[in-house]
Write a structure and sequence with these properties.
Layout (H helix, E strand, L loop, with lengths): L12 H21 L5 H6 L1 H15 L5 H4 L6 H24 L3 H27 L10 H23 L1 H7 L2 H23 L6 H10 L5 H4 L2 H25 L1 H28 L4
Helix pairs in contact: 1-5, 3-5, 3-6, 3-13, 5-6, 7-8, 7-9, 8-12, 9-12, 9-13, 10-12, 12-13
Length: 280
């Protein structure tokens, strides 16, 4: 049974070797520096997660120079984005240790990550504005982020009421995880039910195929069930990882970052594709 999305390809050998060397060097540097990973840093990594999806969308639309495009194809784009984030993370850790100011790490990651997303959005909007049929597509990006926030708020409020201790231990990484998967679910539902896109990943496709057999399909479409599953799973993960964050903050927060990236990256890719590639 197929599990991974279609379209994944290992880049040519020179690109693969470059990514392996840069990734190993980055991981080794972070391991030796041994910085504390806080929930604020996890939150600061969120723009980088969106940037990864955006980079891949630009590559799919042939907006990345050919000599660099292999770095931003799937799955290499996830490794490339980590290397770019590490290029900010590592010197920030060094400087923070010199000045005894760990808050600097999150600030730098957030500033550079946000600047990257804004730059990518600028490129995407410039491309979209040049398309004859781009008027409606201009709203998908902000609508996706806003819609995910609307879904996240009641779910996390309910989680805070029923699992107050776990939510307290999770810190700001908790709502980020739920929001990331709300964004993935909402953007996917928007794509299949409103825009008319397909779904490349087998498991979400099976969930939506099942939703299509329900009596609710003619009224609310089929993407809602995938969004609901994503929200439920994300909320459960917050509860499960909360104890680990309290006992082992660095490992727990790194896991939170990974779980958030699994939702935020594909969601960013969805939204940027809706903007720049309605015909892709």
């Amino acid at each position: 049974m197929q599990i991974l999305p279609s379209g994944l390809a290992i880049p040519p050998l020179p690109y693969t070797i470059t990514l392996v060397v840069l990734t190993a060097s980055s991981v080794a540097a972070l391991y030796l520096l041994d910085p504390p990973v806080t929930s604020r840093q996890v939150l600061a990594l969120a723009p980088w997660m969106v940037a990864g999806g955006a980079f891949h969308a630009l590559e799919q639309a042939d907006l990345i120079p050919e000599v660099l495009s292999h770095f931003f194809a799937a799955p290499a784009v996830y490794v490339t984005t980590f290397v770019l984030a590490a290029a900010v993370w590592i010197p920030s850790v060094v400087r923070a240790q010199m000045l005894d100011d760990t808050g600097r790490i999150a600030r730098n990651l957030a500033v550079f990550g946000t600047a990257s997303v804004l730059a990518l959005a600028g490129v995407a909007y410039a491309f979209a504005l040049g398309r004859v049929d781009s008027t409606t597509a201009l709203v998908w990006l902000p609508l996706g982020f806003l819609g995910a926030a609307v879904l996240t708020a009641p779910v996390y409020y309910l989680l805070a009421l029923t699992r107050t201790a776990a939510v307290d231990r999770a810190g700001v990484a908790g709502p980020l995880v739920v929001y990331a998967h709300a964004l993935d679910g909402f953007s996917t539902a928007m794509g299949v039910d409103v825009i008319g896109t397909g779904e490349r990943t087998p498991i979400p496709r099976r969930i939506m195929d099942f939703a299509e057999t329900l009596p609710t399909y003619p009224y609310v479409g089929k993407g809602w069930l995938f969004a609901a599953v994503k929200l439920a799973v994300a909320a459960g993960i917050v509860v499960l990882l909360a104890d680990l964050v309290e006992d082992e903050p660095t490992q727990g927060n790194l896991l939170f970052a990974f779980v958030a990236a699994v939702g935020m990256g594909p969601a960013g890719n969805n939204l940027f594709l809706f903007l720049i590639g309605p015909a892709l």
